[in-house]
Amino acid sequence: MESASVDLADEVDESSPDAELRTMTVGTAQHGVRLDRVLAELVPELSRSYLQQLMGQGLLSLNGKPTPKPATKVKAGDVLVLEMRPTLQSQAFRPEILPIDVVYEDEYLLVINKPAGMVVHPAPGNWSGTLLNGLLGRDPKAALVPRAGIVHRLDKDTSGLMVVARDRSTMDALVQMIAARQVSRKYLALGHRPWRGADLRVVNAPIGRDPRNRLRMAVVDLTTHAGKTAQTDIRILQRCDDGCWVECTLHTGRTHQIRVHMASIGHALVGDLLYGGAPVDQMQRQALHAYRLAFLHPVTGHELVLFAPLPLDMQAALSFWGLSYNPQHQDLEHRV
C-alpha cells in the first residue's frame, strides 16, 4: 500500500510554469488558531499534510517572514502568502496519446486489450501514462464520463480485456451488469506445482486485507476479519511436473482474487512474487491474462463474445515447461 503522505519531490511538478502566489488575510474567526488549521480552511483544495509539506519547503510566508511553524497561532489581520505549485495529482486526469489496442468499438462502448505494465487509474507513483490518460487522449468525449468510462480494473501486471463505457447511461448499465454477474470474465493462468484432483475446482473463499501484511490480500475468516465473499472456478487445461495451465472464471471481482485463490490452493501464479510465485523464463510478472469477455450489449442487446490473444511472455513460459497453447476454445473473433 502506498503511504498516505507523499514526498514533495514526488508530488510537485517543479518544472511547471503554472505556480500561483495566493495572498490571504486571517479573519477574526480564525484569530488564535494554529496556522496549519487556518491554511487548510483557506486552501481547501489541498490536503493539510500536503500544505504542511509546502510550508516545510519555505513556500509560505506570514507577514513577510518565511517558513513559519505549523503550530504558530495566527492573529486576525495577519497576511499569508502561499506559493502554490501544481501537483502531479492535480494534473493526473489529462489526455495523453498512448497506444491502446481496441478489440471492439461502437458509439456506446469499447473493449480494449490492456498490456501488462499499464496502470488503469492514476495513483501515487503513476500519475501519468495510465489507461485513463490514454482514453482521454483518444476521445475528448471521454472527459464527460466519470473515470473516462472505466467500469472495472485489471492489476498493473495483468494483461487482457476490459470494457469501457463511452457515455454515462452505458456506464451505469455496465456497472449494474457487473454487480449482477451478467458479465462473463475468463482468465488464463500459469501456476506452480502439478495439478492434482478433479479437473474443475470451485474456490469459495472470502478475501480481505492480509492482517499480517497490508500490501497483500488473503483468504480470511469473516467471523474475525473484514472481507468479502469471493468465488473463482478453476479448470485445468494442461499439466506438467512443474506446474499447471488453467482457465479461471470470476464470479466476483475482489482485489487480486485469482492470485489469492490460486495461492490458497497451492498453485501460486508464475511470476507473482507477492503471493509466493517465482519467475519462469520470460515470465517476470504474474502469469495472468484476461482472455475472454462476454456480455449482452447494454444498449443493443446483442451478444458480445470477445477474445484477446495470449501475450508472448506467457507463450514463452508455457513452452519452457513443455506445455503448448491450444486456442481451440477461442476463435479470436467477436460475435455481434
Helix and strand topology:
Blueprint: H1 8-11, E1 20-25, H2 35-42, H3 48-56, E2 60-62, E3 65-66, E4 79-84, E5 101-105, E6 109-114, H4 131-138, E7 159-165, H5 168-179, E8 184-192, E9 200-204, E10 207-209, E11 217-219, E12 231-239, E13 243-250, H6 257-264, E14 288-296, E15 303-307, H7 312-320
Parallel strand pairs: 7-14
Antiparallel strand pairs: 1-4, 2-3, 2-4, 5-6, 6-7, 8-13, 8-14, 9-12, 10-11, 12-13, 14-15
Structure overview:
This protein has 336 residues and is α+β, with helices and mostly antiparallel strands. 17% of the residues lie in helices and 26% in strands. It is built from seven helices and 15 strands. The protein has helices spanning 8-11, 35-42, 48-56, 131-138, 168-179, 257-264, 312-320, and strands at residues 20-25, 60-62, 65-66, 79-84, 101-105, 109-114, 159-165, 184-192, 200-204, 207-209, 217-219, 231-239, 243-250, 288-296, 303-307. The strands form three sheets. Strands 5, 6, 7, 8, 9, 12, 13, 14 and 15 form a nine-stranded mixed β-sheet that branches. Strand 14 and strand 15 form a beta hairpin. The protein is elongated, with a radius of gyration of 25 Å. The two termini are 41 Å apart. Mean pLDDT is 88; it is low at 1-17 and 329-336.
